[in-house]
Amino acid sequence: MSPIPRRSLLKAAAVAGAAAQFSWVLGAKDAEAAPGAEAADADPVTLDWLEDGGLGAAPGSTVGVPWPMGAFQEDQTFALTDEDGKDVPVQSWPLAYWPDGSLKWTAHAASSGNGKLTLAAGDPAAPAQRVTVDKHGGTIDVSTGVISVKIGKNGSTLVRSVTRGATEIARNGRLVLIRQPEIEDEDQGQVRTERFDGAIDSVTVEQEGPVRAVVRIDGKHRKGSRSWLPFSIRLYFYAGADSFRMVHTITYDGTQEPGRASGDFIRGLGVRFSVPMRDEAYDRHVRIGGEGTGLLREAVQGITGLRRDPGATVQAAQYAGQKLADPATWDQRVTTRLQYIPHWGDYTLAQLSADGFTLRKRTRKGYGWIAAGGGKRASGFGYVGGASGGLSFGLRDFWEKFPAQLDIRDAHTDTAEVTLWLWSPEAQPMDLRFYHDGMGQDTYAEQLEGLNITYEDYEPEFGTPYGIARTSELLFWANESTPSAEALAEQVTAVRALPQLTAPPKQLIKAKVFGPGLYSEPDRSTAAKAKIEDHLDFLFTYYKDQVEQRRWYGFWDYGDFMHTYDTVRHQWRYDVGGYAWDNSELSPDLWLWYAYLRSGRSDIFRFAEALTRHTGEVDVYHIGQWAGLGTRHGIQHYADSAKQQRISNTTYRRFYYFLTGDERVGDLMAANVDSDETFLVLDPQRKVRTDPYTPDRHALSIGFGTDWSGLVSAWLTEWERKGPKWEKAKARVLSTMAGIAAQPNGFVQGSGLYDLDTGEFATATTPVVSVSHLSAVFGLNELCAELIYLIDMPEFNDVYFDYCRYFNATKTEQAARYGSNFGTLLLFQGHSRLDAYAAVQTGDAALATRAWTKFYSSDGYTESSPWKTEPLSGPVTLVAGAEASWVSSNDTALYGLAAIENLALLGDRMPS
């Protein structure tokens, strides 16, 4: 896109002053909804569980519920009841507000209730056992009414103790990091490692009951004078629960230079607890999760399978995890020889790939290991303890985010040690070095040539992992005794799929959130509608199956999928520049979340959840010079030199945050509020500019498409959340909307000069036509639909409707309106949803017709596309499966969004 000439700046600034005055007049009306908004009712909402089984063994669940504008005010209280009309204790708080101050989203935490629950206005029931938090001593003391947890305020011990009643179940909960300073690329060398411990910098109580408490711990891993690898830990506690949840985030800030074997290579990353062992060795139990709800069920000192039989009742009791009768009552041929039965103190389950785990054990350190089993995919669950109590522990997405590992050590002593390894120390060190030497691409011209052959936008030193992050989730139970097999299976199930309450699609649609009118429930009432629904189902199922077939798993990779297929190799282009990982290109996040919003399907939710966890953490920089920017698609998630707002886009995070109240995703969104500052550091158009341009704090060139949509989504979200900077964010939403509306060609102008201090666009003096096929495909339409519904600014509406009207118009029509046509464009099928939106907003019947014409008969997928897969097997493919060689992720995202939005907007006006 062409920048506004710098020589026009002074004149533009003068015009901008008038625009600023205009914007603040509009600001006086900003609390008003767009015309046509109506005060809505506040009917009760039926909440259901995402998967069958309800809460199960999980500590609790938090759900976000949207409300129509004007339904409830900020001081509204809520009550929760079960299917029998019985009160269920609930803790509620606001997540977002409408511009008129009424509640837009509320969050509700429940720690009981397994059937469908009804949420309505009313007074909440108090829990019989409430969560309490005491911040006054040397620790933060949290009690659920069943367990008590002491959280450190400093030092390296995050969790000082976990007790149930008078019994200490666990203590000394801490973080463990193993650094390997050198990595050997050959078969010779000496491996050296050093251990760092997590050290607390700050502790914050974010919620303190009565149903839910949240404690946040921030710090870095330290050894001696060095501190690195920042962490942010949240601990979640629910009323009456015997368990708690940990959300664990690390941000990589080490150094790994391409071509060098020295650097900060993570060899192991884990969470460790000590577990007191009070029972006799034969009453100490180990449980380790295998496939499904399968378990290894053993005792530290086993009395089954011996040459002498202690008695069937005794053996059955040990296998069940029950306290054994006095050995004096056993067959004395066993009792008198107990000292000769080995004590198995150490166990390790290592999941080094998505397809295999091994399990082994030994008596103690210094003695040999023996194989104890293995399988394909372990649940990531374990237990160690005895008849007087023990600790259950689990790591979510265990095999999906391999290499992972569970260790139990010293269970034969007074204190066992449990480590949940997020990165297994038995795997290869975490190697994040850039994958090639640059191949001579030292200048922008050479880099553009590289882009033209591999689609990779390379630039020296830009392929760095410095600042990327990853979040993991863990669960811990403090058991009063060794749980039964049935209870353990419930705990395993909670680890694998954390129970999640959900609001139904009808409520999401009724509340008019996430782009009012852009999605509706699936409708198969006509053959044409049914066919599109079939196509949508096919595409989602295909990608879900491809994740499995292509093994798109791993600590840094899980959640993402590939961009483009190589039809010759029958393989996705995982090794071809910018055709590899998708990194949110053309908004697959939006496609998946809209697919969930309209259907309520659990499989779509979980797929979108994994994508959100990945793209919001791994594809975005959280510290360093590019904090707030994301990386374009490539062979490594951080490899491409295009660092832009379009990937860090808050629009992609809002769904998961508002549906679940997840605080970590809330952090990610809040961090983007000031990301306009990054335009001083990095010019997104630096390689293709023809005019001289130096970033100027008072005249930054910012595009109205991919740049502005990312910025304004962060500002809108901060405003509606009433975050710490909400007034500044609100002002920028309004001023930039007014600034775009004031441009000679509105959105078609392409970009504007933005003042970081005032948050305003200068008004250009010369009309420019600068339209990109990418401008609207990173959430612009969805975001503008929200803005237009929220804010009464007719001038903004007009320029956006014009953009919608003319993108898919003929070149002659474009030139007649703007003086010149838009040039060669692409992605007409995806843009059909802009036609549909503008058709409904303006009542233009011709646009409605064109929406379906472009959807069915332009580019992208068509009715004549195969809409099926073909089988694959050896020797043409590595793993037997299927392919749809005609599918690409760009087309999938655009078809998915166009289909969903066109059906919702113009489903009753489909061509016959």
UniProtKB/TrEMBL annotation:
**Sequence ranges assigned to domain PcRGLX/YetA-like central beta-sandwich in this UniProt record:** 131-491
Q: Where is the PcRGLX/YetA-like N-terminal RIFT barrel domain?
A: 44-115
Read off the PANTHER family from this record: CONCANAVALIN A-LIKE LECTIN/GLUCANASE, TAT PATHWAY SIGNAL SEQUENCE DOMAIN PROTEIN
**InterPro entries given for it?**
PcRGLX/YetA-like, PcRGLX/YetA_2nd, PcRGLX/YetA_3rd, PcRGLX_1st, TAT_signal
Name the record gives this protein: Tat pathway signal sequence domain protein
The portions of this protein that span the membrane are: none
Q: Which residues form the PcRGLX/YetA-like C-terminal alpha/alpha toroid domain?
A: 499-910
The organism's superkingdom is given as Bacteria
